[in-house]
Amino acid sequence: MRLYFGIDPTGNKLHLGHSVPLRKMRAFQDAGHEVIMVIGSFTAMIGDPTGRDEMRVSLTKKDIEQNYETYMDQAKLILDTKKLTVKYNHEWLEKLGFKDIIDLASKFTVQQMIERDMFEKRIDEGKPIGLHEFFYPLMVGYDSVVLDVDGELGGNDQYFNMLAGRTLQTAFKKRDKFVLTTKILEGTDGRKMSKTYDNCVFLTDSPNEMFGKLMRVHDNLMETYFECCTDVAAGEVQKILSGNPKEAKMRLAKEIVSLYHGGVQGSAAEANFNAVFSDGGVPDDIAEVRAKKGMTYLDLLVSEKLVTSKSEGRRLIEQGGLKLDDVKIDDQNATVATSGVLKVGKRKFVKIIVR
Q1: Do 131 and 232 fall into the same domain?
Q2: Is the pTM of this model over 0.70?
């Protein structure tokens, strides 16, 4: 069979949410089927309205090119790139003329479009719907026509868009196409995994960073994470989940880190987490920052991007979340005087070197 998975390069990092359909694609590769990965180099400029309660900000061609440059390096962590065909949909969508687009649009009704839940919600709330947003499913649907595929994989939030491709394949008298949806993976805070919510576990995260993020996953999401992101057998998962929740989450984190960084790194990340958060220790691989003697810790936090703003830094200090060598810094005007290990909140550490 010939199958494909499409992804719009709206960012430059792939996260565990992307890994779910990619892992399913790898299973089809291993079974001997032809697999195509379509980079939405054109459709990303329109913006997928799926799941949005407002219009997306349009990306420029330069933005998109910069984003998808890194995609293959990350995708090869999951897919067998020797058995993978990569296509970019600007190669055919840019060639469509106005008559072609009208012809595509004639295959759908306005009623079909506005029945989508995100459009209904915006109409109820009086929020605008851009006419161009109706064209997104037409464009990604046309990908199926060009590729002439047997099937398409994607997250279950892409169901409408994938069925649009099935409609167009039938209209253009191509072979019928099946659609296989995968679960949407919630982020560490229980919402859809998205950079907007700062709740992503990225495939390129360091072992310690990945392990720490996974330990923040809500307990009720562990079963889904085991199912979608690991190779642990279902029967064993149930045994793991029936035990101590913290131990179950430690196993989950170790399994996922090992997949992307190797078993040695998985074990090392587990040991590091225990040393830092169970035994009150300090990570081995913390970053070093050089600070000028006399500068305020508040300025240091902002300059090193340890906080997003001075107001966040002030709140951190007020709440007792800033410590130097385990000594609390409770003065917002305190200045850097000596070198040491600075702990920012519960999980961030930097080693200060005073100049």
Answers
A1: no
A2: yes
